[in-house]
Amino acid sequence: MKPYVLIALLLMLSAKQILAQTSSELSFHQNYRNKPEGGSEQIQVKTFPNPFAEQIQFQFDIIELSQVSITVFDITGNKIAVLMDKMLEKESYKLNWKPSQQLSGMYIYVFSAGKTRKTGKILLLNKRI
Fold first, then answer.
1. Which residues does UniProt assign to the signal peptide (predicted)?
2. 52-82 burial code (b ≥16 CB/10 A, e <16)
């Protein structure tokens, strides 16, 4: 099965799921660097560090006023968290997420800005005491 088919399947499964309440910390920063230059219409989402143990940062540039959402799913398609769902202006942004109750494993994020959708994998490695 090709990766994009698996992601589509996960998204179809998650559409029927109810958002579970999770405890996690988010911090959101606008304008972490200069505004994006004109020209490229391609939106890129960067995650750092990946894999991560305590916190992961999403960095992205919005090229026009858009409704932006970032949603995290587990590998079985269950919705874990909606990190963002709001209207954002043309700007560079970063969003920090500290999951507190999630288990180690692979997670899929779906980034949506206007008509653009991006998906990616993030790997959580919990520290053992």
1. 1-20
2. beeebbbbbbbbeebebebbbbbeebebbbe
CATH fold for domain 3-38+47-124: Immunoglobulin-like (2.60.40)
| Residue 16 vs residues 11, 12, 29, 78, 103: alpha-carbon distances, Å | 9, 7, 31, 9, 22
Tokens 């540039």, residue located: 61
Length of the chain, please? 129
Determine contact, residues 31/92, Cβ cutoff 8 Å: yes
The closest of 106, 104, 96, 109 to 125, measured between CA atoms, is: 104
pLDDT digits (tens, 9 = 90+) for 67-99: 999 999 999 999 999 999 999 999 999 999 999
